[in-house]
Amino acid sequence: MTKTARRRPRRSLLYVPGNNPAMVQNCSVYGADGVLLDLEDAVAVTEKDAARHLVSQALVDLPFDGVEKVVRINGRDTRFFEDDLKAIVPAKPDSIRLPKTESPEDIVEADRIISELERGNDIPVGSIEIHAMLETALALINAYSIATSSPRVTALTLGGQDLAADLGIARSREGTELLYARSHVILAAKAAGKEALDTVFTDVNDQEGLEAECRLAVQLGFSGKAAIHPSQIGTIHRAYRPNEKKLIKAIRVVKAAKDAEAKGLGVIAVDGKMVDAPVVAQANRTIELAKLSGMEVSL
């Protein structure tokens, strides 16, 4: 049995170019659950060193006030991989996002280096998590093996742009071409007890398209979605906000479960329907999302 990943809110994770001082300085004020400080695609080769320094200093100096601090480093197949880890791990990010992950070996190597750096910097070994970014056909085939390759892996995340390029297809507004990939990533992540995070919606001017894709992400089972602009955060959060009817039902389920536990009852029913552990877990998740959305919850 796999261990369920530690729960932290990951409805939205905002990409921030690691070579832009102003954006890095202000990244935690936009209301995203997490920030993705990017050393990879957003940074030109000539600016990698400067971005690495800027991001590592920001992790040390800036107050993030509970916002998850994630750094997307460069992939294992690049010459920047180890230098990124050597600069970033001592600054204690919450998570490393590893792009171009294609095999368990990519995770194992990252885990090995991170562990060495944690030990060398008096950081509890295993405290820095990994988001494995799946961006190729091979990565999808190996998704479950990647998810279970290290306890550090707490999330699988889909890289839609690179996957489309690898498959030789174009991304559409509707996203039909990525439906199988999305579903596969979710199944692999859930089977491993990890979270699944959706890819970005690239058109910052298409609010309706973003809303539709967010609804799909929620419906399929993604825990959250990456954003490329602060204007997308509110839309993503609204998609994860439960409606009043669903929240009321969730509260009733959780209350019934607590009452049954107090009375030593093993079986409960709500509205004439049997309620088991998965239903209670889903109800608790609904309540968690409601609280994050600022809804009033009385238990």
TrEMBL record:
Q: What's in the keyword line of the UniProt record? A: Lyase, Magnesium, Metal-binding
The residues that hold substrate are R72, E135
Entry-linked InterPro entries: Aldolase/citrate-lyase_domain, Citrate_lyase_beta/mcl1/mcl2, Pyrv/PenolPyrv_kinase-like_dom, Pyrv_kinase-like_dom_sf
Q: Name one Pfam family in it.
A: HpcH_HpaI
Q: Can you tell me which residues bind Mg(2+)? A: E135, D162
Q: Name one GO biological process term.
A: oxaloacetate metabolic process
A GO MF annotation of the entry reads: citrate (pro-3S)-lyase activity
State the EC number(s): 4.1.3.6
| Name listed for the protein in its UniProt record | Citrate (Pro-3S)-lyase
Domain HpcH/HpaI aldolase/citrate lyase as annotated: residue spans: 11-230
Q: Which coenzyme or cofactor does it need? A: Mg(2+)
